[in-house]
Amino acid sequence: MNGWRNLFPNAWYVAEREYRSRATSRSFLIGTVILAAIAFAATQLPVLIDVAEGTSRTRVAVVVRADNMPSDSQAAMTATLNGQTNSSTHQAFVLSWYQGGDAAAAQKSLEDGKVDALLLVDRDPASQNLSFTLRTNLASDGQPVNVITNAATYLALDDGLARAGTSIGALQRTKVTVLPVLGSSAGPVNSISREVSTNLLSTGLIVLIFMAIITYGTWVAMSVAEEKGSRVMELMLNATTPLQMLAGKVIGNGAAGLTQYGIILGAVIVGLLAQGPIHRAVVSGSSTSDSFGGLSVPVLGAFVVLFVLGFVLYSLLYAALGSMVSRLEDVQSATSPLMMLIMIGYFMSIFGLQAIDETWVRIASFVPFFSPYLMLARVSVGHVEVWEFGLAVIFLLVAIAIALVVAARIYSAGVLLYGQRVGFRQILRAARVSR
Amino acid sequence: MALVIDSVSKRFGEVQALDNVSLEIQPGEVFGFLGANGAGKTTAMRVVLDILRPDSGTVTWGGRSNTELPHETWGYLPEERGLYAKMKVLDQLVFFAKLHGVKPKAAERETRDWLDRFRIPEYADRRAEQLSKGNQQKIQFIAAILHDPQVLLMDEPFTGLDPINAALLKEAFLEMKNRGKTLIFSTHQMETVEELCEAIAILDRGRIVVGGNLRDVRRSSGRQVVRLAVEGDPEIDWLATLDGVRVTRRGQDYVEAEVAKGFDPELVLQAALTRRCKILRFEIADPSLEEIFIEHVGQMDTSERTLAPRAVHA
User: Fold this and answer.
1) Could you read off the pLDDT of B49-86 as tens digits, one per residue?
2) Of A13, A234, A434, which has the smallest distance from its Cβ to B99's Cβ?
3) CA-CA distance, A407 to A394, in Å (whole number)?
4) Is the pLDDT of residue A90 over 60?
5) How would you classify the pairing of strands B255-259 and B30-35?
6) What is the DSSP string of A20-70?
7) Inter-chain touch B82–A433, beta carbons under 8 Å
8) CATH for B270
9) Topology of A56-185 in CATH?
10) Pairing state of beta strands B245-250 and B255-259?
């Protein structure tokens, strides 16, 4: 066939038709609306979490039996407890302070469930340091217990400093860097949240590519099988070449997919912009969530490149496999080998995120079928050289060129084979003898 | 300028779909492929269209190989009919025309013209799935000719059509012939072939068993058919006793007999006169295409046309 010579404009016409029929189909419209709604809802999750947290405050009873406590102990304790939660929008801890109070009464309210934790503050007679006893049914390694423990340590330190003739406040005023372990505003805490958000971002981007390849790749396969099943293929065969059809289908469905992604992305952006106002309206306070943490221009650029190339590579194969069946019901089983391949790449990258510098991750990130995931994972975590990325892209392009030739052969043979499921052997034989 | 199929063979696994097929179709001719199902008609057309590549042999049109000719040379109406079910008739016809290199505006104008010719202009904005089978067939025919191809290949164009639609399509067919197009179609309806074709080829299991000008084909067996009716003797029993004469059919008012090769059918007339019969009808004809077909392909045909014997359950 003289397919290479005149890929266009016929490929454009096919792409245009594919795009139109896909983008105006009911399933596309419904799917887009549902996904956009889900995406919008997802952006409001932090608000929901804050609302949910607001109703589950941790009530702490502090019974102080020690003497000579620093004068502002209660206020400092309240501030430390609530300052250490991720959100400053509400009081996560409610403090009941019993100076020299009765431990038995407090113990009773703990047992009755009126408070969640009971903190006894004593002074060690030998060292004069404060000692603490925490009684609670809360998980011993949970966040509330950690926060209370930290606050107690802070109190002990403050007390120690007071006895030495100064205070934490005084130290801060003298520009001494204070207590990274304890402080809510110090460096290490921020960097932890940044790392978490980078990991979330990588996973998110990988899931985006994974979903796109499966969903829109299946569209391509379905479009081929449908055309074959309805026998329009016979008309198309004389009007176009397999290459023109392949290219048109990949471009058209890819563009429809990108349209859907664009709309979903729009919903996400609107959702994020609306987060603040909604948050203020619902929870009354300002949101501090940092959803875009770690998203930089290079990462976005790499995402777009890998997204497009990965989609093209996989959807060519989807088209080839789709040409082997003539009923929509058979598309899923025909494309299951490809599904396996995609899943393998996906899981490799999810595990790879935890071991980003391992040799197998590095090697796999150059393998065309896995690089859309793994190279993206490496880029988003930031452990990658420019030449490495370039090499992966070149490999992908080569793989696409090979896939195009192979897919066109399978396709031109497959679309003429009707009847039951066509086996791989049959296809290979047919591909060898036809054109 | 002829379409020349030269020693084309094509094999699918165990099946020899085309076996050293050679034939020549003149420009402007109406040519019929005859054959039972699976005889190789569709494969032959696909090879001409360069949808399938033959294992050996060549196809040329006007001296140019079909692998070099543009798609626009051919118009193809496939046997398996299909349209994009959800797409509007006008949109998909314009789409197909565009793929064949027709400018969008011209494509729309041509499409509307043809819909008018078929007296279905109101279908332009309907989706294909809303049309009856006969009307879909018209749309497909239009799709095959919109780009004004030189050669029109149609695979079983008349199957599944009611008589009215078949007549309409035949008229469109003849119009294409009058426009100087070369028409090639396959069928197993003998009457249609006798009505339309100038030349034919009968295919059997991938081989051309007989081919050429329709009249030559009918005479190729050397046999002739005699139809005789005489007064007062509807059976005409003596006819079967003549040398080289075999009674093939006893109609209500005449008897049909086949005169073997090398015998003069007029001997039958002489025999009747000798017996002093009053002749009501005497007719010499070529064997019908059906008879030729059965003669060549008969063996396979009988098993296809009769039911297998009923199973006997004790």
Assistant:
1) 988 889 999 999 999 999 889 888 999 998 877 899 88
2) A13
3) 19
4) no
5) unpaired
6) HHHHTSHHHHHHHHHHHHHHHHHHTHHHHHHHHHHT-PEEEEEEE--SS--
7) no
8) 3.30.70.980
9) D-Maltodextrin-Binding Protein; domain 2 (3.40.190)
10) antiparallel
Which residues of chain B make contact with A231, given a CB cutoff of 8 A? 78, 80-82
pLDDT value for A285: 44
Residue from A234, A240, A417, A422 to probe the interface with B (highest B Cβ count within 10 Å): A234
Neighbours of A347 (CB within 10 A): 12
Q: What is the CA radius of gyration of chain B?
A: 24
The residue that leads in pLDDT, B153 or B53, is B153
Interchain proximity B95–A429, CB inside 8 Å? no
Provide the Cα torsion B8, B99, B93, B128; round to 10°. Answer: 80
Residue, of A142 and B303, whose pLDDT is higher: A142
Report the distance separating Cα B206 and Cα A411, nearest Å. 25
Measured between alpha carbons, how far is A22 from A255 in angstroms, rounded to an integer?
Answer: 10
B174 inside domain: yes
The alpha carbon dihedral of A260, A264, A265, A270 has a sign of positive
Q: CB burial class (10 A; 0-12, 13-18, 19+) of residue A53?
A: middle
In Å, what is the CA distance from A122 to each residue of A149, A420, B2?
15, 82, 112
Picking from B141, B149, B148, B97, the residue whose alpha carbon sits closest to that of residue B120 is B141
Asked whether residue B52 is assigned to any structural domain, the reply reads: yes
By CA distance, what is B43's nearest residue in A? A416
Length of chain A: 435
Number of domains composing chain B = 2
Q: Looking at residues B261-266, what average pLDDT do you find?
A: 83
Please answer whether residues A22 and A252 qualify as being in contact, where contact means their C-beta atoms are separated by less than 8 angstroms.
Answer: yes
Burial letters for A379-402: b for 16+ Cβ neighbours within 10 Å, e otherwise?
bbbeebeeebbeebbebbeebbee
Give which of A17, A22, A238, A416 to mutate to test B binding, by max B Cβ within 10 Å. A238
CB pairs < 8 Å spanning A and B = 73
Q: Please state the φ and ψ torsions of residue B75, each to the nearest 5 degrees.
A: -115, 135
What's residue A49's pLDDT? 67
Residue owning tokens 């058979």: A330
Of the candidates B184, B202, B218, which is a domain's last residue?
B218
For residues A102 and A124, give the distance between their C-alpha atoms in angstroms, rounded to a whole number. Answer: 18
Least confident residue range of B194-198, B234-238, B279-283 = B234-238
How many Cα atoms within 13 Å fall on the side-chain side of residue B210? 18
Q: Which amino acid is at A155?
A: L
* Chain B residues with CB-CB distance to A10 below 8 A: 99
Closest CA to A119 of A159, A86, A156, A90: A156
Same-domain status, B209 and B238: no
Q: Return the structure tokens found at A368.
A: 């065309």
Contact A217, A210 (CB under 8 A): no
Residues 6+ apart with CB under 8 A from A104: none
Q: Among A110-114, A143-147, A229-233, name the most confident range.
A: A229-233
* Residue B268 structural domain: 222-286
| A90 and A283 Cβ atoms separated by less than 8 Å | yes
User: Closest to B51 (Cβ–Cβ): which among A9, A10, A238?
Assistant: A238
